[in-house]
Write a structure and sequence with these properties.
The structure is a single chain. This protein is mostly helical. The chain has two domains: 35 residues; 60 residues. The protein has six helices and no strands. Helix 1 runs antiparallel to helix 2 and helix 5 crosses helix 6. The chain is elongated and about 95 Å long. 10% of the residues are buried.
């Protein structure tokens, strides 16, 4: 986490200064920078690509259980927790479906409604119509 912060700020500030402030050795930072990506990180990156592909194919409707099932059906080796973690870390969320709101009034029926009565809104006295 700190090493990534140093990498982001290296263009604006001296690396040795940032390392001193964050209590990280500069040699540790440079060793991290030249180290190749781990196989697990590469597999996670590839799984994230596949997750985004499935997400786009299903219009962002799949949460982690269905996403996990889809990835497993395609032959990817992963666990549901790993898929959850990747989705959470990269802000991938299932969109909620539109709520079904039943219409309780059928205006196309053949029954006649209540007739409109002539209404008087002017009264001759209080409480008298």
């Amino acid at each position: 986490m700190r090493i990534g912060f140093i990498k982001q700020r290296a263009a604006a500030h001296p690396v040795r200064l940032i390392c001193r402030v964050l209590d990280v050795s500069p040699s540790g930072y440079y060793a991290w920078r030249s180290r190749p990506e781990s196989p697990w990180a590469a597999a996670n990156r590839q799984l994230l690509v596949e997750t985004r592909r499935v997400e786009a194919r299903h219009q962002d409707r799949y949460g982690s259980p269905r996403m996990y099932a889809e990835l497993r059906a395609e032959g990817h080796r992963c666990s549901r927790g790993r898929v959850e973690r990747l989705m959470r870390a990269h802000g991938i969320r299932a969109l909620a479906g539109r709520r079904f709101r039943p219409c309780t009034i059928d205006s196309r029926h053949l029954l006649s409604g209540t007739p409109n009565v002539q209404q008087q809104f002017v009264a001759s006295a209080a409480s008298r119509v």
